[in-house]
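COURSE: Structural Biology Practicum
ASSIGNMENT: Worksheet 4, Part C
STUDENT ID: 0417
INSTRUCTIONS: Below are two proteins. For each, the amino acid sequence is given first, followed by its structure token string. Answer the questions at the end about the second protein only.

PROTEIN I
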Amino acid sequence: MKSVNVNASDGGAEAETAALVVEKPKSRQFQAFEGFPAPFGATARDGGVNFAVYSSNAVSATLCLLSLSDLHEKRVIEQISLDPLTNRSGDVWHVFLKGDFEDMLYGYKFDGKFSPEEGHYYDPSQILLDPYAKGVLSREEFGVLGPEGDCWPQMACMVPSANDEIRCWYFLCLENSAVLV
């Protein structure tokens, strides 16, 4: 959003008014492919990112992509429904995406049986963290519900890039250089 001040004159008196210009979020396009069931989490590879997560009782899974500003503004850029015939191997849901992942975050929505007595709390309206995520960002309001009990995600997982993977491996090697001979 941008704020623009406009000076208006009616022949003698000047009045300053403020106009609000709302910019639409960048439209991002992603190409979706079957993906791989391993490794778990989001992994940069082959010019894209593979997403894989375990859920034995989910009947459907949706990958939600958002930016940091979307996290604060309660907006999802893209929701990719995973097909259980092509994007599921056993109990692992997976998809491979190609596209622009710069500053991108993600989470999942799962649907299934809601039966607390059996330990099943599926709610397809809630975005969940990936337990295998390599990084998580917070909107810095952890534990604070919004108006009327709004539970918009407090955090989201970071989508890695190929450079992140190389950088992490490089620092891991530096930290363990005494072990590597």
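PROTEIN II
(use this one for the questions)
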Amino acid sequence: MTSLDTERMELVRATRRAEQLLVPAAFVTALGNNVQLIAGALLMIRSDRTMLAVGLLFVAVAAPQAVLSPIFGRLADRYDRRRLWIGCDLASAVLALALPVWLASGGAKGPGIYAANFALAVVAALFFPVSNALIKERVRPSQVRRFNANYEMATQAGMLLSATVGGLLVQRLGAVPLLFFNAGTFAVSAALVAGVGRRSAVTGAETSVAAGATPAIIPTTASTTASTTAPTAALTAGQPASSRVPLGRLIVLYAQGSVVVTVFNALLPKLVLGEWERGAALFGIVDAIGSLGFLAATAFYKAAGRRFNDLPIAVFGFLACNVALVLQPLFGPVGLGLGVALGAFTYGTARIASRSLVMTSVDEAHAGRAFGLANGAGLAATVVAMLGIAELVDRSDSRWGFAALAGLSAVAAVAAGVLLRGPLSHSRDGVRHSDDREQHHGAIGAGIRSRMGNHERRRRAAGGVLPVPAPAPDSCGVPDAGVAG
């Protein structure tokens, strides 16, 4: 076995380990982030039964990320992403512990909740681009779509289950034990990411060309930063290269998903606790049902992704989710549960597809910046949508809030679909033509190598009985490099 084979085997083992550990790390991180937020929302809705009080809490979380994520995305492209992820988790654990200590010492509830969630949001502004850039760095290009399905399912399931955990624990034990549980989730995530190990090798340019080219293995040291590594030029499942697809249009499609899930998480406690006056347990059960929808979405995307491109999957998925949003508050708790399951299924499918579009359309060296911009744009839009919908709901009821959210999402999905259809279509054509040329050149090269091999075998056979003739001079007096055969 050659050293290249050994390096290739080590790379495969390292990437598989990363793929196995990053998914549960994403789950517990999402669970922890949203447990803190849900606990705060439940406490605020009990003390001030307005949508605006809850909406301001979500704005306090979204605003710092909207401003800082594009800036922190550049840091994710300059420094060790694994260490940054671990640092974010440890900082979040410390901040999460600060709130129950503050409440137990008799601190004011409202200011403490806003301050703790604001501080966690600052850390999350770095975590989002860092985590996505680490995925781009460690996951094999050929596995990006499959991994994204699992990763997005884990993230969204963690967000939804946070409502279940939050609702049940707040109702039975109160908010303080829940907040201690939240700090523990960040410690678990840090341990999982530490198990990924240091970066020892990267793929330079793994292509999907039928000529069967072997991916380059480029050994690196632990201090190698993402900005000094070769960008990944791979296209998976016919997805476009970043130079051919406008990133801003992809961000419109991807980022509007952040608006949907964040505003929905603010509307749900207002509907269940504020208007229906049901317990926190129903609030948690409804979101737990939604988790089943995300599990179904993961399986569906893996099947649909083999037959359809990501753009139509994302657009039609978001539009179907908009229909579910309108129906959710109209038919009581049973209708809400069914609507949330349908909405989670369609939203999850669309979110996975839009994430795959962004992930496969940026190179590794700029992945942090791209996802930082996507997170910032999505949360900036969330702030505007949250304040507007909160005002609408407080003047009417939650049904209008769900309808308004569905309308905003539908406009963004249709606009992005129309704007991206041309660039993505041209990019796929370019990829197809490039693949055809590579196959053609590969066939020519194979034919030349075959003829050269036959020629060499004839020369060696003749050399067994005849001396090899000296090269004859050509017309310019220079010995010919050819071999008589």
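ANSWER KEY EXCERPT:
Q1: The longest strand covers residues 201-203.
Q2: The domain at 3-203+217-435 is CATH 1.20.1250.20 (Growth Hormone; Chain: A;).
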